Amino acid sequence: MDPSQPPEKTLGPRLNLPDNFGSLLQNPYPTPHSFSPSASASALSQNYQSNVSSSVPGSAPGTVAPKVAIPRLPPTDVSHGRRRSARACEPCRQRKIKCDGLRPSCSQCIYHHQQCAYEDVKRVRDQKRLGSLAKRVEAYESLLRDLEGEVDLETARKIRRIMKNPGKPLPKNDDGSDSDSSMGSLEAIDQVDEDLNRSEGTRAAGFFGKNSEIQWMRKLDVGTSMQNPDSAASFYFGSNQDAPFAQQPQLGRVNSTSMMDYHLDNLDIPLIEPCNPLAVPSRKLADRYIHAFLTYVHPTFGAIRLTTFISQYQMFFENASSPPVKWLAILNMIFAIGCRYTRLVDGPDSSDDDLIFLTRARHLGLHSKVLFEHTDLQQIQLELLVAIYLLCLGQVNRASKFSNMALRSALSLGINLRLTDNRTQDAAKEARGRLWWSIYSIEHLITSMTGRASCVGEGVCSVPPPLPCEEDNFSQPGVQHLFQDPNLRDSQLTSTLFESSTQFNSQAWISTCAPCPSLFFNFLVDLNLITHALMNKVYSIEGLRKGPSQIEYHVSKFGTRMDRWLDKIPPFYQFTSPEAGPWHLNHSKLHDLSATFVRESVCLAMSYYSARIALCRPCLTHIHTQSSQPRSPETSGTPRAQFRADTATQCLQASSAMISILPETPNMSWLARTAPWWGVLHFLMQATTALLLCLSYCSYTRTKNSRSPDPTPGSPALLANYPPLQETDLSTAIASAKKAMHWLHVTASVDPAARRAFMLCEGIVKRIAPGLDIDLRDWPDGNGFAEAIRASRSSSGNGNDYGNGNGNGKGYGYEGNGSGIGRESGMEAFEELIDFEGGVF
């Protein structure tokens, strides 16, 4: 330092600057050299040691200072304050509070005791939703494929179209909607077009609905009475009005229902007085009546429990004991029904004691005091037997009254429900169940005859179907298992109406049962369930309001059920030729009185074809249209039109099959021993009326075409959607109608109801014959019946031509012999009577 210069004042300790500090000031950014890790580390170490040694006080130059521990750096992941979660749970999201994102449950959910759940991200959510929708679409497509065979034809076609072209919408006006199509005479809701309380005759006849052959005959009478072709066209092809009776002003008159009713309700049933209610016939005559009832009525109307009644009957005659009055009333009604059968077999000169038995039963169990008492099982049996007897007399309206009484009484005691009381014996439970099915069957029969609203449906009862075995076999292990396990019984004896395709395809236990009256009864009840459900769905007001599409669906559905029922018939009861379809009957078996189980086969055949006629009848005259536009050729060839044409053809086939059950030559002995004689007239008139409906249309169209060979596009002939008949089919229909008329004519000689039915049909045949060039010279003639019919209609209670044909009859109108053909497809139950000590079942 220069001594002349004053010393520099410093503010702190002197800094030791490196020797090259000046060069660094001159060149603050030197040119970088290549980096050498070893050289850099060595230089750093030397520099560090020199700095440390120089900075330690008291240390000698060149000595190494001791090592000093360097504190560790704090962790870099330590956060200051609350950390934010990437995704909050759903409860915190909904409450809009902070979520710490802990799994499986965040702190907030643990504190509030809530279930913690984290939603997937949107991409994952969309993938899961697409997978769920794809599975749902597959399930829907599988369901549609299953439903395709169960729904009506038009809906099935829509299903096929939408599955074939999923992206193509269906047209709005697809092949004829409900608004421009109809079901013939069923398009209008039931109405009463006359005052039924006007006279005694109208009150006796009562109301007849659309599914009654009485209304079919009335429709025929209106159509064939129209001499004006325009009026006839309006009748056959419809108008914008609801019913064919809208033509009343043009016709001038329309026969009332009572004039078209061939039943005998307008005739009084007299009391035979004086009468001893406790009197009984001789043992020989009583045995004959009991045998007739048990052989020809009991298998289809088993209102009694057979084993118990036989023991009581023998005890009554052998011990001369005094049974209760209701038991005697039931016994007298059995005598009355058996007596009606013997009159049918023996002819008009046989005994007419059935009125005496009826009078005794009225004194014992049907007097005014009993009607105000609470009902019991014996009263139900008595009311059911009276209804059966009135059917045998042709008194359908009165039979309906007693059937309804028995039905309401049964409902009041819960006989329509499954009995689970362990104190009641299994045989007694079965007897009560069969009593219910008997009431159900007779109610169904009367409903089909009168067309009135039914009081029962398939969902009103839970009692199982009747067992297909006799009471003597109830102690067998297999039958005991059915009694003890209701689920097993339901699975083995599922009704055809309710069974699934899997149950139908599986081997049914009932197919292994031996032939017996109980098995026959089971098949009749099974068919009645199907037919009664059909009546409630197709002919009811509710069914008509749903439109023709629903009607067609139900026709197809119940037709399938009937086909299944027919396939289940065992070989010994079959009435069709094997593998030949439902329209080819085994006539050699049905017409042979010596054939085994011929009676069961005939009864099943008549009940089946009666159900088929009722099923297909809505499509027989679907020629009414509310549309003023003519149908195009494309519309007439649609699946709906084809379905209706096929169903109408099946109606004619069923009618012809019904007539073909009867032998070619009328035989009253065959009728009494094989057919359900209380219901033959109903079955015969069902088929005959359907055939005459077809022939009347054919007669009109031929007459119309002969007058107008080239009808205009808007003429009714082209508006018709009726299945055209080939010449062979027309010949078959005419031959079947002719055979039916012969049977009606022969039956009319012994039954006033058949006599009235023949006269009604003959009048229609004479009106339609000219249009079809039918030669009526070999057809039966009813000129001799006219006077008898007028006499029977004017007879009153003080005459009683009841039926021995001797001129001094008792006023019932049976001038011929009074065989009493009634009607019934038959199915009844076994029922136990009260024993002499007062026990019930």
From TrEMBL:
SUPFAM superfamilies: Zn2/Cys6 DNA-binding domain. Residues 34-56 have a biased composition (Low complexity). PROSITE patterns: ZN2_CY6_FUNGAL_1, ZN2_CY6_FUNGAL_2. Residues 1-82, 162-184 are annotated as: Disordered. The keyword Iron does not apply. GO terms for molecular function: DNA binding; DNA-binding transcription factor activity, RNA polymerase II-specific; zinc ion binding. InterPro entries: Trans_reg_galc, XnlR_reg_dom, Zn2-C6_fun-type_DNA-bd_sf, Zn2Cys6_DnaBD. It comes from the Eukaryota. GO terms for biological process: DNA-templated transcription. Residues 88-118 form the Zn(2)-C6 fungal-type domain. Residues 130-157 form a coiled coil. Keywords: Coiled coil, DNA-binding, Metal-binding, Nucleus, Transcription, Transcription regulation. PANTHER family: ZN(II)2CYS6 TRANSCRIPTION FACTOR (EUROFUNG), ZN(II)2CYS6 TRANSCRIPTION FACTOR (EUROFUNG)-RELATED. This is Zn(2)-C6 fungal-type domain-containing protein. It comes from Penicillium salamii.
